[in-house]
Amino acid sequence: MLESTPEAFTASCRADLDLARRAAEEFRASPGRLSPEEALRRYDAAFGQLGEAAARASLCRNVHPDPALREAAERCEVEVDAAATELALDRGLYDALLAVPTEGLDPATRYLVERGLRDFRRAGVDRDEATRARVRELRDELTRIGQEFGRNIKDDVRRLPVRPEELDGLPEDFRRAHPPGPTGEVTLTTDNTDYVPVVTYCRSPRVREALWRLYRLRGHPANLEVLSRLLSRRAELARLLGHATWADYATADKMIGSEEAAAAFIERIAAAAEGRMRRDFAQLLERKRADDPAAAEVNGWDSTFLQERVKAERYGFDAQEIRPYFEYGRVKQGVLDVTARLFGLTYRPVPGAPRWHEEVEVFDVLEGGRPMGRIYLDMHPREGKYKHYAQFTARSGVAGQRLPEGVLVCNFPRPGKEPALLEHGDVRTFFHEFGHLLHHVLGGHVRWAAQSGVATEWDFVEAPSQLLEEWIWDPATLATFARHVETGRPVPAELLARARAADEYGKGLWVRQQMFYAALSLELHRRDPAALDPTRVVAELQERYTPFRHVDGTFFHASFGHLDGYSAIYYTYMWSMVIAKDLFTAFDPANLLDPAPARRYRDAVLAPGGTKKAAALVQDFLGRDTRFDAYAAWLEAG
Question: Fewer Cβ close by (within 10 Å): the C or N end of the chain?
């Protein structure tokens, strides 16, 4: 799958670059010599080959266990991005695309040309040579800065020694997996497999606070200076390309269209959730005062813990009660079985397939015996690996040429002598990320590489994943895999009903927290970086959008990894959720395992990949434009 030595990886990367440049040369010389179809094949191959090299480098940098290979992948990414910039600023390529006659072309191909011309102009191809030269320099530098920002987060795993008795409240399987060391103390880390259970269940305020603070020191202090460079270079690049701010540049080609529209959307969502947030927080403060009558506020490290107490005491639901029904192996099989049933697929294990680590599982995806693609599951944490949850591309599919291959990269607890139990939130994450994987595979059978898989506007890409989350509450769906790890009994309907009722609590707090993240990503990219103090902006926006005060000496932005990849557009998660809630109205909540609407959804939304605008995909499926009603109803439910 990934070459075994840094030298082989580098050679493969450069071979891809050579193929891309050769295809570009043929396309540049195509006017008057090649038919539109033949010319566009060269154009798509040039940029598609770069995409393949970039995807493989990103995957290797984030998952490979060999540090030398990860470093080779970083260098490859720099070279690929430089080559992509080189092609995007090539006036000869732009003129050749402009010369392609579009009359008689099918809609998807016309859309390919339309978007290609737009992307050339967004890259600065029509600027003077001095400007294009500076754009090249900035893009190369931004690639290196982004890598540095992410590496400083990934490699900064902090540790907290605690006494075994301070783990009171944590699940027994967690405590068994964290035995005392030679000093008699237990070592906790800032990896999510430790952090999330501790802030959720640990009864010791000292431990929760200490780990919470450590978590917000990851990447600090190095990333403060890195972020300053990142924001400064992005602002300069945006101005060179005719935009007032990076936020303006980053939103211009999205569904939302402008930074003003993004800011207005954030305020609309924040206003819609304000009443619910205040009610949620009042319950949190009331619960804290049950332990501390003099409490005047709730601290960040108390929030998740107190929310669990409210759910247990007011709604009769303790999250630990449902964990034994979500053993990792059964959940994994459940995700495979449910999606196979909905979308008419089969997953066939490929035990001998090349892979980068022994824990990675490989499956071929088939439909009626016909190969549709391949998926890789890299599901447990290890040193040097990406710390969160995401779908990565191994290969983009092109009809008649190659099948799509996608990778699920997660950090769920690792099964060992004891079974690995997941939180219900982990099950949600599993379904969500698998939604991206399905989109990549099912949308990977189009004519053009540029339109393969998850190739829609960026602020739509989360919608298919958020839609798949709806199945984690469906009793019929859970009955297929949610069985007690010891008794094998299915999750009781009464327990699930209590879990659903409890899940409604805290929704206002969660939405406003998401709007804090969205506003932060936008504001950091629309203010003057020369006069910007990001730490002060974090404090300002946290206290505007959430009821929790900023804690001096913490630096959330130093480990806010989305500031690299998503830059100014974190709003896209909630924008996509508005669409996902609307898409869900086409399904029957009483019969979610009915394959009929799922197949119609697959054909209308997933299979087209990026062959048309996302708004058109929604119209094809719903028969109308997106509405806010379903999201508003969800926000007020319960």
Answer: C
For the question of whether the overall pTM of this predicted structure is more than 0.85, the answer is yes
Please check the confidence at residue 74 and state whether its pLDDT lies above 70: yes
Name the percent of the chain lying above pLDDT 70: 100
- Report residue 106 as tokens: 């099918």
DSSP-derived 3-state class of residue 108: helix
Length of the chain: 638
Residue-wise burial string across 618-627, b where 16 or more C-beta atoms lie within 10 A, e elsewhere: beebbeeebe
In this structure, are residues 449 and 45 in contact, taking their beta carbons and an 8 Å threshold? Answer: yes
Q: Give the model confidence (pLDDT) of 405-417 as tens digits.
A: 999 999 999 998 8
pLDDT tens digits, 330-362: 999 999 999 999 999 999 999 999 999 999 999
Cα dist from 36 to 72, 94, 117, 295, 466, whole Å: 38, 14, 15, 71, 38
Angle at 266 between CA 154 and CA 301, to 5 degrees: 50
Residue 487 to residue 507: CA distance in whole angstroms: 33
Amino acid letter at 618?
Answer: V
* Residue 592 burial (CB count, 10 A): 19
Q: How many CB atoms lie within 10 A of CB 401?
A: 11
What is the distance between the alpha carbons of residues 157 and 170, in angstroms, rounded to a whole number? 21
Unique residue bearing structure tokens 């998740």:
304
Helix-helix angle 91-98:36-63, to 10 degrees: 130
Assign a CATH topology to domain 6-126.
Answer: Glutathione S-transferase Yfyf (Class Pi); Chain A, domain 2 (1.20.1050)
Residue entry with tokens 């924008």: 575
Q: Is 324-503+573-636 a domain of CATH 1.10.357.10?
A: no
2 pLDDT exceeds 90?
Answer: no
DSSP string computed for 224-235: HHHHHHHHHHHH
Question: Which structure tokens are listed for 636?
Answer: 């007020």
| Nearest residue to 473 via CA among 241, 303, 638, 353 | 638
Closest alpha carbon to 51 in 121, 119, 99, 106? 119
Domain boundaries, the chain: 6-126, 157-215, 324-503+573-636
d(CA 148, CA 142): 10
Q: How far apart are CA 446 and CA 428, in angstroms?
A: 29
What number of other Cβ atoms are within 10 A of residue 102's Cβ? 12
Beta carbons of 201 and 169 less than 8 angstroms apart: yes
d(CA 553, CA 474): 43
Neighbours of 264 (CB within 10 A): 12
